[in-house]
Specification:
about 130 residues, alpha+beta, 6-stranded mixed sheet, 3 helices, about 30% helix
């Protein structure tokens, strides 16, 4: 089976050796995606962070032939339960009609202390 890769421009893609997304056949996995802007900045607002995460993740999915309607599972990692409502509301805006299986987990921390949320998704593409 052919294997496709999508890149987002993260400096970690080369140093760690990963792809933003990988498609094998009809299955797509999008890696953990953080709320970083092209200039490296991170907005402190959890709603803005969640939107940025999904924007990056869905762009990678689109790059290898997927659409938001193809998403079957999402995962959201938050550093505090205090941001869960804001992050969840963004998920509802993005996936309200799609309704993928979804998990939100409070974690001890993420790679960059400015990040309040990181997301990933799986999709099945025709």
């Amino acid at each position: 089976m052919d294997r496709q890769h999508a890149r987002s421009g993260s400096p970690f893609e080369d140093t760690i050796g990963f792809s933003r997304a990988v498609r094998v056949g009809h299955t797509v996995a999008v890696a953990g995606t953080a709320p970083v802007w092209p200039d490296g900045s991170v907005d402190p607002d959890p709603t803005v962070q969640a939107r940025r995460c999904w924007e990056i993740a869905l762009a990678a999915l689109e790059e290898i032939g997927g659409r938001v309607e193809d998403v079957v599972r999402t995962r959201q990692y938050v550093v505090t339960a205090d941001v869960a409502d804001a992050v969840g509301a963004v998920h509802g805006d993005v996936f309200g009609r799609v309704r993928p299986a979804s998990t939100m987990v409070v974690v001890a921390g993420l790679l960059d202390p400015r990040w309040l949320v990181e997301v990933e998704l799986d999709a099945v593409v025709d």
